[in-house]
Specification:
Blueprint lengths: L6 E5 L1 H15 L4 E5 L1 H5 L3 H10 L4 E4 L2 H9 L6 E3 L8 H6 L2 E5 L2 H11 L6 E6 L11 H13 L3 E7 L12 H21 L5 E4 L1 H6 L7 E4 L10 H9 L11 E6 L2 E5 L4 E2 L5 E2 L4 E6 L16 E4 L2 E6 L7 E4 L11 E8 L2 E3 L1 H8 L3 H6 L7 E3 L3
Parallel strand pairs: 1-20, 2-3, 2-9, 3-4, 4-5, 5-6, 6-7, 7-8, 8-9
Antiparallel strand pairs: 1-10, 10-18, 11-14, 12-13, 14-17, 15-16, 15-18, 16-17, 18-19
Helix pairs in contact: 1-3, 7-8
């Protein structure tokens, strides 16, 4: 099957399950593990990853929108699913019927969800998001009392969680702002408890928080990037060492591969690609690969990145095109047409990391993997 593809993303189930186990251990017995599979499982493919997460011991799945939540149900998975992103008011009823748990932060959506649950014979679970300093989603502290009084009156609702999100925990080795957010959060949870008369399950941690600060674990952690074997940032890695912790062993789950479409020799002084941006100073043996920026191989990688052929690094020559790129295989004389070329992942003793491509693009590894085109087939790696 693979021989018929021009490019594909390979998922390593053992690596993914091993990463989940790492977080199980970090969290201990008290906190549940939400595997965040939003954005098509960070580009890894929701259809492959969601069942793996369920089998690999995730307690809860986190998706971005209603469509992703419904897809999880179509896959036959019945574990709790929290919708982290926005659901239009008109579709909150669909979310309720599919047993999804929306994250809400305003009166209109609370009232709509309550109405959807009326007469259904069961309550509508939801999570209340609190604003503690990111200034994204979330109830502002000054509005909290009114929202809680409303919730107390809407008997169709059942608060399945109260949550917050960190603003910069992965951006710095100084966690003063994260701690400031925690202080705000704990104060607001106190308010929730006193108005509702009970403490709902609490969750706050993303990957970096789960790794770095135990006091962020609460009743559940929402782990995304590091379940895919990637560090949230260099700062997070450095922080674990500064905190005298053993950095957890994370295994990258995703590889991105293609095959060589053409090999040819170009003479000295000739140019390669659009803009004639590369000019050969000596004769070059060049490979054409059928992957371009349309597929998610960023154009900013032009002349910057390398690909692997026969276990060796081949520099990208000239500009990345819409559907193609060229690589220098002069020093890989046995490279041949239809040979596998690795854009992200390992081959022989070499590895191209998402972090390496992210650095070349001045972005983060999250963006590199999440933007691999949805049209690129996702396949399970051969054992
Ligand atoms: C994406 C997301 C996460 C996961 O963050 P990572 O840094 O990928 O672990 C957690 N919580 C919320 C609300 C998110 O949107």
């Amino acid at each position: 099957m693979r021989s018929t593809l021009t490019q594909w993303v390979e998922i390593d189930p053992a690596a993914y399950c091993s990463n989940l186990k790492v977080f199980r251990k970090i969290l201990g017995g008290r906190s549940r593990l939400m595997a965040v599979v939003k954005a098509d499982a960070y580009g890894h493919g929701l259809d492959l990853v969601a069942p793996l997460a369920a089998r690999g011991g995730a307690d809860v799945l986190g998706v971005n929108n209603l469509e992703e939540g419904l897809r999880v149900r179509e896959l036959g998975l019945d574990l709790p699913v929290v919708v982290l992103g926005y659901i239009p008011l008109a579709r909150l009823g669909d979310a309720f019927e599919a047993g999804l748990e929306p994250v809400l932060y305003n009166a209109a959506s609370l009232i709509r969800l309550h109405e959807a649950a009326k007469g259904a014979g069961r309550k509508a679970p939801f999570h209340l998001k609190l604003e503690t300093g990111v200034n994204r989603q979330g109830v502002m502290e000054e509005d909290l009392q009114d929202i809680l009084l409303l919730i107390r009156n809407l008997d169709g609702l059942s608060m399945a969680g109260v949550s917050m999100h960190f603003a910069n925990i992965e951006d710095t080795t100084d966690h003063a702002f994260a701690r400031f957010q925690l202080v705000n959060f704990n104060r607001m949870i106190g308010r929730v408890e006193s108005v509702l008369g009970r403490r709902p399950p609490v969750h706050a941690a993303c990957s970096a928080a789960a790794i770095l600060l135990k006091e962020t674990h609460f009743d559940m952690a929402r782990v995304g990037i590091s379940s895919y074997g990637l560090w949230p940032s260099k700062e997070t890695y450095l922080s674990t060492i500064l905190l005298h912790q053993d950095p957890p062993r994370l295994e990258p789950v995703l590889s991105w591969k293609t095959r060589i479409a053409q090999i040819k020799r170009i003479p000295a002084d000739s140019h390669v690609g659009y803009g004639c941006s590369f000019r050969a100073t000596h004769p070059i043996r060049m490979a054409v690969l059928p992957v371009g920026y349309y597929d998610g191989y960023d154009r900013r990688l032009s002349g910057q990145a390398q690909v692997l052929v026969k276990g060796k690094r081949a520099p990208v020559l000239g500009r990345v095109c819409m559907n193609m790129l060229m690589a220098d295989v002069t020093d890989i004389p046995d490279a041949a047409v239809e040979d596998e070329a690795v854009l992200i992942g390992a081959q022989g003793k070499e590895r191209i990391t998402a972090d390496e491509l992210a650095a070349a693009c001045h972005t983060i590894n999250y963006e590199i993997v999440a933007r691999i085109g949805a049209h690129v087939p996702r396949v399970v790696r051969d054992a």
